[in-house]
Amino acid sequence: MTNKSLKEKARQLRNTVVDMAVKAKTGHVTSAFSQMELLVALYLKPYMRFDPQNLEWEDRDRLILSKGQGAIGLFPVLAEAGFFPKEKLDNFCGVDSLLGVHCEWHTPGVETISGSLGHGLPIATGMCQAARLNNKNHLVICIVGDAELYEGSNWEALLFANSKKYNNLVIVVDRNRQGAIGATDEDCGCNKDGPHLEELDKKFEAFGLDVESINGHSFEELGGVFENIRETMSNREGPLVIISNTSKGKGSDVFEDKHLWHYRVPQGEELTKVRQDISQVLND
Amino acid sequence: MKNKNEKLGMRDVFFEKLYTIFQNDPNACFITADNGAPTLDKFATDFKDRYFTVGIAEQQMIGMAAGLALEGKKVYCYAIMPFITQRVFEQIRVDVCGHNLPVTMLGIGAGLAYDIMGITHHTLEDVSIMRTLPNLTIWSPSDSTAVDSIVKDSHDLQTPQYIRFDRMGVPEIYADNNFSIEGDLTEIVKGKDVAIVTTGIMANNALKTAEQLKRKGLDVGVIDVVKIKPLNTAKLLSILNNYKAVVTLEEGVLAGGLGSLVLETMSDSNNYKPTKRFGIDDSFVFENGGREHIWDLYEINEKNLSKKIHEWHTDTIC
User: Fold this and answer.
1) Cβ A125–B67 below 8 Å, yes or no?
2) CA-CA distance, B318 to B312, in Å (whole number)?
3) Which residues does chain B have within 8 Å of residue A118's beta carbon, measured at their own beta carbons?
4) Domain membership of residue A107 as a residue range
5) Which CATH architecture has domain B183-317?
6) Are A160 and B49 in contact (CB < 8 Å)?
7) I need a surface site. Which of A181, A217, A268, B91 has the fewest CB within 10 A?
8) What would the pLDDT profile of B169-212 be if each residue is shown by its tens digit?
9) Interatomic CA distance for residues B138 and B135, integer angstroms
10) Is pTM, for the whole model, over 0.95?
């Protein structure tokens, strides 16, 4: 897939996310929008190795969406990649649906339960170790939200991952600078913002990890790190951290980088404007 | 060489047997959060690639265990009990039990085993909280014979487990009294008037209490529950059917503990018996002076129990 067609796919899938959220009246739309290009690149380019017809394939790359809040953005990508029929998206959160607000193992293509933050990285280290024990060369890709990094368990895992030099571990930080209701690196004066994460790259580096920063909405820059990721990692001596700089709610001015949209679903005029904004992306 | 008469502690009996299992099962892995044991040292050297020290990082330990188990490994995690239950309750709930994985949490220091270490090291709430977890099996052996009886069954289970170990120096109930252990729960002393249902080290206090009460004319039996979850309810109810009244005894909080479990079991099957619970009632234990002193203060030793059970029986049952 060319970058242009990936971009179009990301636009279409943003619309799908909105459809799902509007119908179910739930889902973290803005969390999904910040990671959309990343997931489209990994699954639809695809940079990842997987087989939707063989979910237990030992050599598949493992992706853990540790920020499970982004599930509503992952599901349309998984459907597009062939893990389950797209019609299933229509029943998001409905009766007998395998698709809920957060990731759970019963969804084809989902490796782990997530939604309680700070769980993905420790699990990823176990998967990396198992791959090493089994002499497998697949990658373990763990996507964490930047605000998720407030959870101390991540740093327990990073210490361990570095000490074990897991060169099969790719950590992607969705750096949208927003948590649920507060920002990570602002001071709005409203007492809602969290402690500053900056300088985040230096924090990872202090743990012995190499960091690459990219624009997470650019397929060119995503390709720059993922095009040869297997070869890159095999030549590395430890995990790689990719800080994927993004905007929460990327794709519509209605909610991009705006507070209090983590829990909201657009409706009425807002919804109309969101649709317009998403169609605008194509014309950029 | 160990003296023949010198008995191994509960965890060491477990680790000795587990060592053989590790020799035969290349999928078995061990993670410790900076805790050791003399019998564990050879795991660290002989199974180098499958033995991991994560440091004092229990969240990492449980999460990593889940990751290994998701990839087909059978994982044992080891730490002092409060840190492998309360501190990582959510990791156990979501990562291990949510995926129904073969991860076994080995906790050392049941109840007040770390008596003088203070409330940070006491584990009085574990039965109450851990038995709320779907898919989890809970083993609560009362001595090394009971431990020995569960190692293989435990390894064969491909689901989450939690095993409660006491520290060194626990009386040998089964071996010293020539009792035969019968799997998940055993009526170690038979009686007719009152059944004391207990678990862990309290089985010993229950035995002594039963002896004292027999001298006072009360025919008291003792039931040692080794597998708390899933409880063998049919067997328990069948045994309790032979008694007029039930007492539960645990070295833990009453809220949600073994006593609650026994009451739930009787209630859910419409088998009602007069029942009295003994344990720690809604309290932290800040007192020093050692375990036996604490038992005396909280009235869960044979002296207090025999008096209280006798009074209760006289007032309520007679």
Assistant:
1) yes
2) 9
3) 59
4) 3-283
5) 3-Layer(aba) Sandwich (3.40)
6) no
7) A268
8) 899 999 999 999 998 999 999 999 999 999 999 999 999 999 99
9) 10
10) yes
